[in-house]
Every structure is written in C-alpha cells, then in structure tokens.
Amino acid sequence: SGMSKEERILDWVKQHAVVGDPQSVVDAMDVYSRQKEWSMHVGDIKGVIVDKVMEEVKPQILLELGTYCGYSAVRMAHLLPPGGHLFTIEFNESFATIAQQVIEVAGLRDKISILKGPSQEIIPQLKKKYEINSVDMVFLDHWKSRYLPDTKLLEENGIIRKGTVLLADNVICPGAPDFLEYVRNSKRYECTTYPVENIRVNDALEKAVFLG
Ligand SMILES: Nc1ncnc2c1ncn2[C@@H]1O[C@H](/C=C/CNC(=O)c2cc([N+](=O)[O-])cc(O)c2O)[C@@H](O)[C@H]1O
Ligand SMILES: [Mg+2]
Questions:
Q1: What share of the chain is helix, strand, coil (3-state, %, to 5)?
Q2: Structure confidence at residue 199 as a pLDDT band (50, 70, 90)
Q3: Other C-beta atoms within 10 Å of 20: how many?
Q4: Beta bridge partners of 115
Q5: pLDDT digits over 67-78, tens only?
Q6: In angstroms, what is the span from residue 93 Cα to ligand 1's centroid?
Q7: Catalytic residue among 30, 141, 203, 206
Q8: Hey, CA dihedral for 127, 130, 131, 135, is it positive or negative?
Q9: Bridge-partner residues for 61, per DSSP?
Q10: Are 164 and 194 in contact (CB under 8 A)?
Q11: Which secondary-structure segment (H or E) carries 194?
C-alpha cells in the first residue's frame, strides 16, 4: 500500500523542520511542495497575503475550514496575538491525524484545536459544544462548493459578527463563483480581492468583511 502523499509530507517535515519552530515547518512544506510533490497548501506566495490579513485583523478567535495537513493552521497560528486561538475543522480522519502531528512539530498544540467532522455539522455546534461566541476571522480553504453554504451557516448561527473578516482562498482557481457573487453583491459584506499570478495558475484570495 505504501505511504500516502500526506504521510510523505509529514515525514519530510519531521526530517527537515526544527521542533518548536513554526516558520521552519512552513518552509519545509513549501520546499516539499515545490521540489517533490505539489500539494494544495495555500503556499508561500498566497501565504504572504494571509500573513498580511493576520497582522491587520489580529484575531483572538480564528476559524479555519479545511485543515488538510496543517500548513495554513501553523502559518496563521504563528501570527496569532497573545491569547489568540485557532479552531480548524477537518472531516478526513487521516488528514486530521497528519495535521495534528505537523502542529506538534511546530510547537503550536496549545494554540490550535482541530475539530473533526464536516463543517456543516460542526458550525451549528460551535456555540454550545465549543463555547465559541463569535469569531474574529474565518479562513475558507475546504471544498470550494462548501464556501457559500457554510458562509450562510456562519451567519444563521451567529458565529460571525459585525467586523468579522472572511478570507477565502482559491476564489479564481479552482474557483468559488457562487460564494464570490454572493459576498460581492450582498450589502452585508465589504469585499477586497487579492489576485496572485502564481507560477502554476492565476488565483485570488477574497477578503469579505461582514457588516452585520
Ligand atoms: N465540509 C468539510 N468539512 C470539513 N473538512 C472539509 C470539508 N470539505 C473539505 N474538507 C477538507 O478540506 C480540505 C480540502 C481542500 C480543497 N482544496 C482544494 O481543492 C484546492 C485545490 C487547489 N488546486 O487544485 O489548485 C488549490 C487549492 O489551494 C485548494 O485549496 C481537505 O483536507 C478536506 O478533507
Ligand atoms: Mg486552497
């Protein structure tokens, strides 16, 4: 059967990152993706935009949809303000297990909680089960067809409040056209697009600030 790609990524991180050094974990995953096997992390070029939004928002409570191997979880949690916490939702058990170990190598286990299950089930539980009143920022990077329904779930469940920042990866490639159309045409969001001409594909991140 052999190792999965995700197991190979974890193995590379264990061999090339410095334990307790989140930047070395991010760098190792970027090198692996560039030199060995491309993987669907937000990556180093778009990651700079994620960093910028993190510095701007300084979220105390950050929600991520789609952990995968934990690249963006480590990259963002490293930039959380003191006392800040990242809740990241992942429904694939093996990816969640890989991500947990990547997060341990980074030394960020106290700053990140992986919530295992489908976002459409977990979002309605955030208040009662996870005692999350509202979140300051959401990073959307899971199945692109889930961006819009989950945004509506976040609204309906009162998880986002006036000023909460949604940051969505891949709004051009693979694309989330229904999400884009919704936030851009809705009076309840203030949108900014961050286009990137990547080496591989042209893509963009969309920042949509909820106006309440
Ligand atoms: N409803 C749900 N609840 C919880 N976890 C869920 C979920 N839906 C998906 N996930 C998880 O989120 C990740 C999916 C990412 C899809 N990205 C992508 O498909 C993707 C593709 C390219 N690309 O092809 O260039 C580039 C990118 O940056 C990409 O993010 C996986 O770890 C998957 O298990
Ligand atoms: Mg992505």
A1: 50, 25, 30
A2: low
A3: 12
A4: 89
A5: 999 999 999 999
A6: 14
A7: 141
A8: negative
A9: 85
A10: no
A11: strand 189-197
Catalytic residue among 30, 64, 169, 203: 169
DSSP, collapsed to helix, strand or coil, labels residue 115 as: strand
Q: What is the DSSP string of 133-193?
A: --EEEEEE-S-GGGHHHHHHHHHHTT-EEEEEEEEES-IIIII-HHHHHHHHH-TTEEEEE
Percent of the chain with pLDDT over 70: 99
Rounded to an integer, what is the distance from CA 7 to the centroid of its chain?
20
Pair 39, 32: CB distance under 8 Å? yes
Q: Ligand 1 centre and the CA of 56: distance in Å?
A: 25
Alpha helices in 36-92 (DSSP H): 43-57, 71-77
Q: In what order do the strands lie in the sheet with 202-210?
A: 112-116, 85-90, 61-65, 135-140, 160-168, 202-210, 189-197
Beta carbons of 60 and 82 less than 8 angstroms apart: no
**Predicted-complex ipTM score:** 0.99
Q: Is 197 exposed, middle or buried (0-12, 13-18, 19+ CB in 10 A)?
A: exposed
Q: Is the pLDDT of residue 2 over 90?
A: no
197 is catalytic: yes
pTM of the model: 0.98
* Tokens linked to 175: 């694309």
Task: Band the pLDDT of 201: cuts 50, 70, 90.
Answer: confident
